[in-house]
Amino acid sequence: MNAEIVARLHIVLNNIEPVIWRRVDVPVTASLKMLHDIVQAAMGWENCHLWHFEAGDRRYGLPDLVWPESGMTAAKSVKLAALVDRDVRELVYTYDMGDDWRHTITVETVGPGEPDIKYPRFVAGERRCPPEDVGGLPGYEMFLEAMADPAHEDHDRLREWYGGAYNPDDIGERFTRRAVAAIAIRRHTGKLAYQKSRPE
């Protein structure tokens, strides 16, 4: 089996200190739609809001059928390799236009992957991403303050809203690895099914 070409990506959730980040290995044959799925899995988002990528002056996401002149290119039609070939080394990924979570994705390296590894693969990361619908950066700051202080007037309400305690330093690595691995397994199964469907 030949090793496929893989890009190592560093994903940072912008404007938050200490930094919330992930590092993943992604096959360059992945579409930007798959990259969206990988970012969601790696960061711990729940994939329930609109999103898009920006690279230079181009945007990639889900085109608006009502407004086709929006200039949005279908993410499922563009491979990561196409951006790498254009020497794009940085993308901006925005998730949830209300809370406006912006991520900077940097292409750190591109090269042959390991032949016995199913990609994408979670490599490393630090800190848990904010809860969905927390109210963007200001809401997240208030949420962290209230959750850290049992005497805070909103502590009990927000703990109940979140569903329990919140540890910003715990990324839930086991869950994250499994979520990214599930995409790799789906991709591998799809490739095998495609190969079997081809005539001899």
Automatic annotation (TrEMBL):
Protein name: Plasmid pRiA4b Orf3-like domain-containing protein
Residue span, Plasmid pRiA4b Orf3-like domain: 7-171
Lineage of origin: Bacteria, Pseudomonadati, Pseudomonadota, Alphaproteobacteria, Sphingomonadales
InterPro entries membership: MM3350-like_sf, Plasmid_pRiA4b_Orf3-like
PANTHER family linked to this entry: LEXA REPRESSOR-RELATED, TNPR PROTEIN
Organism per entry: Sphingomonas turrisvirgatae
